[in-house]
Amino acid sequence: MKSLKSPLLAFLVLCGLGFILDLGINAYFQLILLFALVNCLLSMSLNLVNGYTGQFSLGHAGFMAIGAYFSAYANTHWDLIPPSFQAVEYFIYALGGGLLAAVAGFLVGLPSLRLKGDYLAIVTLGFGEIIRVALLNMDFLGGPRGYSGIPGFGSFLFSFIFASVWLVICFFTIWRVMHSTYGRGFLSVREDEIAAEAMGINTTRMKVRSFVLSSFFAGVAGSLFAHFTNFINPSSFTFLLSVNAVIMVVLGGMGSMTGSIVAAIVLTILPEALRLLQEFTGVDLRMVIYSLLLILVMILRPKGLFGEKEITDVWRKYVRRSA
């Protein structure tokens, strides 16, 4: 029960935040916040591979697409649970989408994670494109027309709480893994793979395990995305989505869960906030300013906003010291 105290407290805080936001902002900003939660889930999952294990994956959009299409198809064709237990049904389908993405991650990771660096990035990038092209040719999933009529969660509060459940599960699952023997194995692969092998660690197995867990949560993020948008098509999961996830991880800090969350929220809200500038100037300068800000952050904070630190480290270093 002591180990469940922090997740339950975090979930209650998020529920309270969702209730306040449900009363205080309009539908447009509510949708942006829901996308921010999806990006938080996506960036935390990728951080497990790119940040903690030290690999370079560019195929997360493919795993997200698998979860999105599975959940969309299941919700429109299967009725496993009565409508009064709709939340349980959504949870089961999101879990199924994550498991299917994890299986794909295992099948891709087992042969490709023997590679390193740029070679691994090219292989994972190719996998993401294979998934996208395959979806373009699947007529029962809409093909290039996309998949429409996906049922939503009904209200912003329910959507926010449902996403918060998975956000808390993802954060504390990765947190506990990284503070276990497996987490030490992931870090050893990142720091020095040759030394880790010399100490008897099966580095390929460690990389595959981190890849599978990361793929699972990417699939769950795809499931949430499908229900928030009510429409998906293969162009929703292009190479740019994977690049955007990598930017979130690098900007927040490689190996920082808190940094991944903060960077995901900032990079989701920033392009929309810059729309106000377009109304005054009449020119769309959002991507220019967005890119310049990223360059400045990388120059001033080359290790990211948080580096390898978490919010607890900042609390202990500054708040408790000043108190």
Report the β-strand fraction as a percent range.
under 5%
| Shape verdict | globular
Low-confidence stretches: none
Number of E-state strands:
2
Write up this protein.
With 323 residues, the chain is mainly α. The protein has one domain. The chain has helices at residues 2-24, 27-52, 60-77, 86-112, 117-136, 156-178, 181-191, 193-198, 203-229, 239-252, 257-273, 275-281, 286-300, 311-322; strands spanning 147-148, 231-232. A two-stranded antiparallel sheet has the order 1-2. Helix 1 (2-24) runs antiparallel to helix 6 (156-178) and helix 7 (181-191) crosses helix 9 (203-229). The radius of gyration is 20 Å and the shape is globular. The two termini are 30 Å apart. The relative contact order is 0.17.
Q: Would you kindly provide a brief summary of this structure?
A:
With about 325 residues, this protein is an all-alpha fold. The chain has helices at about 1-25, 25-50, 60-75, 85-110, 115-135, 155-180, 180-190, 195-200, 205-230, 240-250, 255-275, 275-280, 285-300, 310-320; strands spanning about 145-150, 230. It has one domain (about 1-240).
